[in-house]
Specification:
This protein has 15 helices and 10 strands. With about 450 residues, the protein is an alpha/beta fold. It has one domain: Cytosolic phospholipase A2 catalytic domain. Its EC number is 3.1.1.-.
Length: about 450
C-alpha cells in the first residue's frame, strides 16, 4: 500500500457514508459508552478465550434472554490470528435465519460453539504425525503444515460472507510481506478503502498464517474494475494483542467526524468499556538465560527444547506492552474498572505450543480456561513479568459485572429515538445544538 492509502484524510465524509447499514449494534451516540472486545492470537490456545467468551455470553443471556449474543453488545471486536477466527465466528451472519431486517439477524456461531469447533478441527489442522527432529528438518524445507484443512473448514463455515457483512464492526490485523507493512481489515475503513471488503474466509486464513507453521496467503479483491493484491501472514507480526488497534480504529472515526461517536465524550477513557482476552503464556522462571543464549545460532533461537525463544520473546513482549500501556492509562484516569484483561501466564511448556493439538493437550487448555475464570483479576508487572492480582474479585465476577454494564448500555441505546445523525455531536443528547460546532453544550462539562 502507498502512503495515500493509509493517510487519514480530514475531508468531510457524511455520517451516512461512514455507517454500516447492517450492524445490529446501535451507535455509541445513542448511549454513554464505547464498547470494545479484543482477542489475542495463539493458535490452538484460542480454546482459552473460547471458554471465557462462553461464560460472558451465558451471563448476558441471564440478563437479556437466550437469544443474546456477544455481537449484540460491542461497537468493535478485534482479533489476531486465532483471535481473528473467533472474531469472525462471533460476528458472521447466519444465512439460514430468514429475516429481511438486518437488526434481527443472528450470528453464525454462539460462543459455546467455538470450543467444539476447535476440538474437532485443530487435530486435523495441526496433525501430530512426526517427531521433533523430523519437524525441524521439515521446517527448513517449508511450512510445518499445508493449511488445507484450515482453509477447507473456514471456507465451509464462512462461505461467501465478506467483511462488510459482519453484524458489528470488526478489526483483524495481518501483515503484507510484499509491501512490508501491516494491513488491518477494519469494517470501519471500508468506505475509505473499499478494497478491504474481502471474504472473511480469506481474512481468517491470512491472519492465521504463522510463518514456519502455515503458508502465507495470497488473494485479490476487485473494486470498480481495479484489483488489489494481498500477500499476507499472521496478524501477530503486527499486533498479537489487538486492543490498541481496536481503539485506534475508533480514533480514526473521531478524526473523520463520524457522528456515531459524540464529541468530546468519545475522547475520554471513562467512556470506554474494554475486555481484552489473552490466549495464555508460559512464563517459567529461568526458561532461558543469556549464558545459554550466547551460544545459540539460527537453530537455537528458533528451535529449543523449551520452546521457540524468538517467537516467545516477540509475541509476549508486544502482548504485555499493550496491556501495560492500557492498564496505566485507565488507572491514571481512575477508571481501571472499565478495563479488564484476562490472561493466563502460568501455562506449562507443552500447553504453550501453538500447534500441539493432541486430545489431551486440548482438554488441558479447556481446563486452563475454566480455571482462569476463578483466578483474581490481574495485570502484568513489568518489573518481574508476572501477572499479579490488583482486585479482590475473580475474573468470573468481573465478567458478570461487565455483562451488567453491557446490558444496561444496550438497553439505553435501544430506548434512543431517531438516528445518530439527529443527536448532538458534542454530548449525544437529542439535538443538534445550534452552537455544537463552536463550543460544547453545557451537558458535556457536567
Amino acid at each position: 500500500m502507498t502512503l495515500q492509502h493509509t493517510h487519514l484524510s480530514k475531508k468531510n465524509i457524511s455520517s451516512t457514508e461512514m455507517q454500516r447499514s447492517n450492524t445490529i449494534v446501535k451507535p455509541p451516540a445513542c448511549g454513554k459508552l464505547i464498547t470494545v472486545l479484543s482477542i489475542d492470537g495463539g493458535g490452538i490456545r484460542g480454546l482459552i478465550p473460547a471458554i471465557i467468551l462462553e461464560f460472558l455470553e451465558t451471563e448476558l443471556q441471564k440478563l437479556d434472554g437466550s437469544q443474546a449474543r456477544i455481537a449484540d453488545y460491542f461497537d468493535i471486536i478485534a482479533g489476531t490470528s486465532t483471535g481473528g477466527l473467533i472474531t469472525a465466528m462471533l460476528t458472521a451472519p447466519d444465512d439460514k435465519v430468514p429475516n429481511d431486517k438486518d437488526t434481527n439477524k443472528r450470528p453464525l456461531f454462539e460462543a459455546k460453539d467455538i470450543k467444539e469447533f476447535y476440538r474437532k478441527n485443530c487435530p486435523k489442522i495441526f496433525p501430530q504425525d512426526c517427531y521433533m527432529v523430523t519437524r525441524k528438518i521439515k521446517s527448513l524445507l517449508g511450512p510445518l503444515y499445508d493449511g488445507k484443512h484450515l482453509h477447507k473448514s473456514i471456507r465451509k463455515k464462512l462461505k461467501d460472507i465478506k467483511l462488510g457483512d459482519t453484524l458489528t464492526n470488526i478489526a483483524i490485523p495481518t501483515f503484507d510481506i510484499k509491501q512490508l507493512q501491516p494491513v488491518i481489515f477494519s469494517s470501519y475503513e471500508m468506505k475509505e478503502k473499499p478494497y478491504l471488503n474481502a471474504l472473511l474466509s480469506d481474512i481468517c486464513i491470512a491472519t492465521s498464517a504463522a510463518p514456519t507453521y502455515l503458508p502465507p496467503h495470497q488473494f485479490k479483491t476487485s473494486q470498480n474494475e481495479k484489483e488489489h493484491e494481498f500477500n499476507l501472514v499472521d496478524g501477530g507480526m503486527a499486533a498479537n494483542n489487538p486492543t490498541l488497534i481496536a481503539m485506534g480504529e475508533i480514533a480514526k472515526q473521531l478524526i473523520r467526524g463520524n457522528s456515531d461517536f459524540p464529541l468530546p465524550q468519545s475522547l475520554e477513557y471513562r467512556r470506554y468499556l474494554v475486555i481484552s482476552i489473552g490466549t495464555g503464556e508460559c512464563k517459567i522462571e529461568g526458561k532461558y538465560n543469556a549464558t545459554k543464549a550466547s551460544k545459540w545460532g539460527f537453530f537455537g533461537w528458533w528451535f529449543n527444547a523449551k520452546g521457540s525463544p524468538l517467537l516467545d520473546i516477540f509475541t509476549q513482549a508486544s502482548t504485555d506492552m499493550v496491556d501495560l500501556h492500557l492498564s496505566v492509562i485507565f488507572k491514571t484516569l481512575n477508571v481501571e474498572t472499565n478495563y479488564l484483561r484476562i490472561q493466563e501466564d502460568g501455562l506449562e511448556r507443552t500447553l504453550s505450543s501453538f500447534d500441539k493439538a493432541t486430545p489431551e493437550n486440548l482438554d488441558h487448555l479447556v481446563k486452563k480456561g475454566e480455571g482462569l475464570l476463578e483466578k483474581k483479576v490481574s495485570t502484568v508487572n513489568l518489573e518481574n513479568g508476572k501477572f499479579e492480582p490488583y482486585m479482590d474479585k475473580t475474573n468470573a465476577q468481573a465478567l458478570t459485572e461487565f455483562a451488567q454494564k453491557l446490558s444496561d448500555e444496550k438497553r439505553l441505546r435501544e430506548k434512543s429515538t431517531g438516528p445518530a445523525e439527529d443527536r448532538c455531536r458534542c454530548c449525544g443528547c437529542p439535538g443538534p445544538h445550534i452552537f455544537a460546532k463552536l463550543r460544547p453544550c453545557y451537558s458535556s462539562v457536567v
